[in-house]
Structure formats: C-alpha cells, structure tokens
Predict the 3D structure of the following.
Amino acid sequence: MREGRLPRNTAIGIKTRHTLPSDAAWLRGHAAGAPVLKAAARCGWAVLLTGAALCLLQLAGWAFAVTAIGYLAVTCLALLSASRANAAAKNMAAAPPAYLQQR
C-alpha cells in the first residue's frame, strides 16, 4: 500500500469518506496509514505464534487470554490506521491546489 501499487477500489484497502473521492487522496491516505497497519500485522503474527506455542505447552487458558488481548490490539491498530489515513486524505482535500500556492 505504501508504495502506491494498490489502485483505488471499493473491495480492499482503507475506505473512508475522505480516501475514496480521488486517486490522490487514496494514495495519500494509504501512505499515512500503512506504517500502523504494518504494526498491526506484526502484532497479529506475534499473537498467533505465542498462542500456538502456549497451546503446544497445554496452557490453553493463557493462549485464550493472549489471543483475546491480541485481537483487541490488532483491532485498535487497524482503527488507528484508518483514522490516520482519513486525516491525511482530509488534510489534502482542505489544502489549496499547488498551482494556487505558487502565486
């Protein structure tokens, strides 16, 4: 996403009111949200591996607790990513076009 290879669409990506109107807003929003989304993915993998290890050690209660906390953390990070993407796209929409700033 951060490299700008995901074209604007309604199927996948960070879809908010401010990221969908234009390709430029879509790209700017995804560039702003990508680092947090990457952290969410790393968190998810860490939780998966930790939960699996705890299950192998027959500590199902701990595995459930880690999974629940991880699910909450990944959800919060995904929401934070969407919020940052939306704010970046919104700020872009509020800024005057470049040709007006040069005058």
Remarks:
- The two ends are 34 Å apart (CA to CA).
- The CA atoms of residues 51 and 64 lie 7 Å apart.
- The first helix runs from residue 23 to 56.
